[in-house]
Design a protein that fits this description.
alpha+beta, 2 domains, 5-stranded antiparallel beta sheet, globular, binds adenosine-5'-triphosphate, binds magnesium ion
Length: 324
């Protein structure tokens, strides 16, 4: 595949392409670090930071930085404490020199615009933001359990019951987003974090978009999770059904430990996605789980299972009603 084609599907790492993705390969090394116990952020402190600190009053010196939590395309995320309120939070520090070119600042502006309007227990809280000459800083709820990606890497795959419970949680968060006319467009285990009680929280709204007409044309996301309608050549519009496709890929990955279409090259993976050339599911996977995955990984977007259909599907219902 040429660099132009890579760029067109949003996986370029060149300086003039869209935001590079963390994962386009089949076997991305998965490291794991345990988070240490820290006091859960308290509600009063969150309100304090939100109400007393307008953007102009906020600055880096108000926070004590503890340690890095992760890194992304434009900067780093740190565990931090707001000195005055003792709020424990995550600071997503985006270096201006990394994105102030070729319209990439649009990503950051959009991330702030979209994320700041969201309030849901299944979505990382957005407390505020500020900027100085060299960086833009997002103040976020700290997810003490870290990335689901690392948990999955450690455990290889999840039981059907655990996978179904996780998928139901992601579906609830997506349902909230879609009702607010937001497409996430980058659903993957790296962008799902865990709270104190193991609950899932969607993060990283860098590719999200508010689309009241439920139509978009920009090709973006992480290749393994991108839908066929986004990968076809030329300008083709797509809907929020792209998130449902990603939910199908996620279910497959939870149950097997690998993604269904990954191949050695970007071009080969793209071809497999567009032809629905999926790695066969292991025989140990239940027929209900297989039916669930095959109802989401459907080439024709309108016939894909809806979010209501996801929550009503026998595989989800059966696994979510029992404890554990
Ligand atoms: P990319 O474009 O590569 O996905 P990004 O720049 O958009 O990255 P994020 O995905 O938001 O950055 O964050 C990068 C990593 O930092 C996450 O994968 C996660 O490990 C960690 N991280 C981000 N936000 C939090 C948070 N609120 N609590 C704990 N860890 C976080
Ligand atoms: Mg990310």
């Amino acid at each position: 595949m040429t660099s132009k084609e890579n760029e067109a599907i949003g996986v370029s790492v060149s300086s003039d392409g869209p935001r590079p993705c963390k994962r386009v390969r089949l076997n991305t090394p998965r490291s794991s670090t345990r988070t240490t116990a820290l006091a859960e952020s308290n509600h009063a402190a969150k309100s304090a930071i939100q109400s007393t600190s307008t953007q102009s009053k906020l600055h880096y010196g108000l926070f004590e930085i503890a340690r890095p939590l992760g890194s992304g395309a434009f900067g780093q995320v740190y565990l931090a404490r707001h000195r005055e309120s003792c709020l424990i939070c995550a600071l997503k520090v985006l270096n201006k020199e990394n994105f102030m070119c070729d319209g990439k600042e649009r990503h950051v502006r959009r991330e702030i615009e979209v994320h700041s309007c969201l309030r849901h227990p299944g979505i990382i809280g957005f407390y505020g933001w500020f900027h100085d000459s060299s960086r833009i800083v997002l103040i976020l709820e700290y997810a003490i359990g870290g990335e689901l990606f690392k948990v999955l890497a450690r455990e290889d795959h999840f039981s059907e019951q655990r996978a179904a419970k996780y998928i139901a949680q992601v579906a609830c968060s997506l349902s909230y987003l879609h009702k607010k006319h937001v497409m996430h467009r980058d659903i993957k285990p790296e962008n799902i974090l865990l709270g104190l009680h193991g609950e899932l929280k969607l993060a990283d709204f860098g590719y999200s978009v508010h689309a009241p007409d439920n139509k978009r044309e920009t090709k973006c996301g992480t290749l393994d999770y991108m839908s066929p309608e986004m990968l076809v050549r030329g300008t083709v519009s797509y809907t929020n059904a792209v998130d449902l496709w990603a939910l199908g890929v996620l279910t497959y990955e939870f149950l097997t430990g690998w993604t269904p279409f990954a191949d050695n090259t970007v071009a080969a993976t793209r071809r497999r996605i567009c032809k629905l050339d999926m790695e066969p599911l292991p025989a140990s996977i239940s027929p209900e789980a297989k039916h669930f995955i095959h109802s989401l990984l459907v080439l024709d977007p309108p016939t894909r299972l809806s979010l209501e259909g996801v929550l009503d599907h026998p595989w989800i219902v059966k696994n979510c009603k029992s404890p554990g």
